[in-house]
Write a structure and sequence with these properties.
Layout (H helix, E strand, L loop, with lengths): L2 E5 L4 H12 L5 E4 L10 H4 L9 E4 L2 E3 L5 E9 L7 E7 L2 E6 L3 E3 L1 H11 L13 H31 L9 H21 L13 H4 L2 H7 L6 H4 L2 H10 L3 H7 L8
Parallel strand pairs: 1-2
Antiparallel strand pairs: 1-3, 3-8, 4-7, 5-6, 6-7
This protein binds glutathione.
The site of glutathione has 12 residues, from α1 and α3.
């Protein structure tokens, strides 16, 4: 199988990528990384992501450096020049086919961009690649998600879901401060969503998709009111969270459940 995703279904960043893979109708293998057992900090996973965080994607692609008749010599090994990547090369009469394995792509948003771009003709078009202006707006709103929405919502999710696992009660001061920040971001979304159905325009895109995992966990908490109080944001949330691709992914998003 060409695409291998290393991660955990309950993880927000893994779910972001899983949703993208489902929207694109792609075959892939999910390789489970057990965060609770610390697998992400062990050498095999650190070789894929030295930051020790999930997810990581491997695309076992074939790169052709030359072509010709196969003379059957197979060369396998790690090389300095290709860092720690494993490579396979098949010597041919007038060239070498090199097949790289274990080329990891990390950072969930970089992974979704790669998948959406590489498979732009497959499944749902997440990037509006045929319209340069719409494509630019998709990029704008994916940046807004990572630069404005994420910094406000992530600490709230941490307090509700991760702090209790570490033996701490959620810190209401942090929650309140970040909720105020998130409310201001969502006021801008509310205004935008009065004129277009989705963030980048009247089409669902990668920009909307990137919001799903953190918003999904937020909606399980009392802080869901920050969405429910804003009618256009609420309608947008109900729309994007009921797409079949995300519904499939949400089944595995049970972080913090007993
Ligand atoms: N910016 C990264 C963040 C990755 C991240 O924070 N992953 C979490 C799971 S959602 C993780 O591996 N946490 C364990 C740790 O940081 O030790 C991305 O979007 O992929």
């Amino acid at each position: 199988m060409a695409l291998k995703l290393y991660g955990a279904p309950m993880s927000t960043c893994t779910s972001r990528v899983l949703t993208c893979l489902h929207e694109k109708d792609l075959d892939f293998e999910l390789v489970l990384v057990d965060l609770f057992a610390g697998e992400h900090k062990q050498p095999p996973f650190l070789a894929k992501n030295p930051f020790g965080q999930i997810p990581a994607l491997e695309d076992d692609d074939l790169t052709v450096f030359g072509f010709g008749l196969l003379i059957g010599k197979l060369i396998v090994g790690p090389t300095q020049s290709m860092s720690s990547k494993v490579w396979l090369a098949v010597q041919t009469l007038n060239g070498v086919y090199v097949r790289c394995c274990e080329v990891s792509i990390i950072e969930s948003r970089a992974i979704t961009s790669y998948v959406a771009e590489k498979f732009k003709e497959t499944g749902y078009d997440l990037t509006r690649h045929q319209n340069i202006k719409e494509a630019a707006l998709v990029k704008v709103w994916t940046e807004v998600e990572s630069q404005q929405f994420h910094p406000a919502i992530a600490p709230i999710i941490f307090q509700f879901f991760v702090a209790p696992l570490q033996g701490n009660s959620p810190d209401q001061t942090i929650i309140d401060a970040k909720l105020e920040k998130l409310g201001k971001v969502l006021d801008i979304y509310e205004a935008k969503l009065t004129s277009t159905k989705y963030l980048a325009g009247d089409f669902y895109s990668l920009a909307d998709l990137h919001h799903l995992p953190y918003a999904y966990y937020l909606m399980k908490t009392p802080a869901a009111s920050v969405v429910n109080e804003r009618p256009h944001v609420k309608a947008w949330w109900e729309d994007i969270s009921t797409r079949p691709a995300f519904k499939k992914v949400a089944e595995g998003m049970n972080f913090g459940e007993k």
